[in-house]
Design brief:
It is a single chain. The chain is α/β, with parallel strands linked by helices. It has a domain of 222 residues: NAD(P)-binding Rossmann-like Domain (Rossmann fold), CATH 3.40.50.720. 43% of the residues lie in helices and 16% in strands. It has 11 helices and 13 strands. The strands form 4 sheets. The protein has a 7-stranded parallel β-sheet with strand order 3-2-1-4-5-6-11, sandwiched between helices. A two-stranded parallel sheet has the order 7-10. It is globular. The C terminus is likely disordered. The structure holds uridine-5'-diphosphate (UDP). The site of uridine-5'-diphosphate (UDP) has 14 residues, from helix 6 and strand 8.
């Protein structure tokens, strides 16, 4: 079996590549390295069965060639991260909508099954006011702020995928990823847990946006990848949408305290107004936790690691990353050829 992963050099894509290679599958990672990076897949480059193709999902010809050469497709390529999409709404819409259409068209032409990665953002605002978890059949409620252009583009991806399934018989599975963390995730795009870990370890203030009462649940990337692969291998999942994440809730303020405690850090916890963090007009989601009954029913599995284990692992890899960064900074000071 040869699989194509669009966004294969991204955070989740690179872990998916690793897991599929470990199962004996061949993997081709297609990525334009916009938010993904070669660093994420360097360790896979020499592995038999792995190939990297530098290319964009915006390039219909590149997509067609890659899909034709594969037996199945995991479509994870997208413009990601709330901060990035808030700053570049046009690029976000174009990449997510046109790129996905290229992938679906190619899969249809060549008769390939496709997993479409979506996001909990599509639920939009928390219409339950913190009284319940998001279910796949919930209404989608978005507002007029530009933040919702990301959710809109991914919701359109989902509807396109479902339409290709219903109308044209394309085998698709759609997964809505909730907050996922793990090695190689960049804190640069605003992801809260790696940011808190880095701030705590560096002794800098831990920045809680707003009053910190907003609720999230965090899942470990290895668990998320396992759920993804199992869904793809489950024929009954075709044409359906699934939440993929953890259902252990935590407020962002509590998260800050737990990270500080687990790192034994003396960092102060500071509150930063949303306006200062994201610019004017930003609307946060106050409660975002998935209902996982459907995922469990279809694949007999939901993410396993509890929050304390996840924080522990994130702290460990952040510590390693900071040590490597400090090492290369020291090397660049010692090496006169480097500026
Ligand atoms: N957040 C925070 N401090 C940070 C980064 C994020 O308090 O330094 C908050 C953010 O406003 C949101 C939550 O943490 O309420 C999760 O943010 P993230 O960007 O990780 O994911 P989201 O769930 O918003 O997609």
């Amino acid at each position: 079996m040869k699989v194509l992963i669009t966004g294969g050099a991204g955070f989740i894509g690179s872990h998916l590549a690793e897991a599929l290679l470990a199962c004996g599958q061949e993997v081709v990672a297609l990525d334009d390295l916009s938010t993904g990076s070669l660093q994420n897949i360097l360790h896979l480059m020499r592995r038999p069965g792995f190939a990297f193709v530098l290319g964009s999902i915006m390039d219909a010809t590149a997509v067609d060639q890659a899909v034709r050469a594969a037996d199945a497709v995991y479509h994870l390529g997208a413009a990601v991260g709330v901060r990035l999409v808030f700053e570049q709404p046009v690029r976000t819409m174009e990449t997510n909508v046109r790129g996905t259409q290229h992938v679906l068209d190619a899969c249809l032409r060549h008769g390939r099954k496709v997993f479409v990665a979506s996001t909990s953002e599509v639920y939009g605002k928390d219409v339950r006011n913190g009284t319940g978890r998001f279910r796949e059949d919930d209404d989608i409620t978005i507002g007029p702020s530009m933040r919702w252009c990301y959710a809109t583009s991914k919701a359109l991806d989902e509807f396109m995928a479902r339409a290709y399934a219903a109308d044209k018989g394309l085998p698709v599975v759609i997964g809505r990823y909730f907050n996922t963390v793990g090695p190689r995730q960049s804190p640069a795009y605003g992801m809260v847990l790696p940011r808190f870990a880095e701030q705590a370890l560096a002794g800098r203030p831990i920045t809680v946006y707003g009053d910190g009462r907003q609720v999230r649940s965090f899942s470990w990337v290895g668990d998320v990848v396992e759920a993804t692969v199992r869904l793809m291998e489950t024929p009954a999942a075709e044409g359906q949408v699934f939440n993929i994440g953890s259902d252990e809730p935590v407020t962002v303020r509590e998260l800050a305290h737990r990270v500080r405690a687990q790192t034994a850090s003396a960092s102060p916890i500071v509150h930063v107004p949303y306006e200062e963090a994201y610019g004017p007009g930003f609307e946060d989601i106050l409660y975002r936790v998935p209902e996982l009954t459907k995922l469990r029913a279809f694949v007999g599995f939901t993410p396993r690691l509890c929050l304390d284990e996840i924080i522990d692992r994130v702290v460990t890899y952040t510590r390693e990353r900071l040590a490597v960064g400090a090492g290369s900074a020291a090397a660049s000071i010692r090496d006169p050829r480097r500026t």
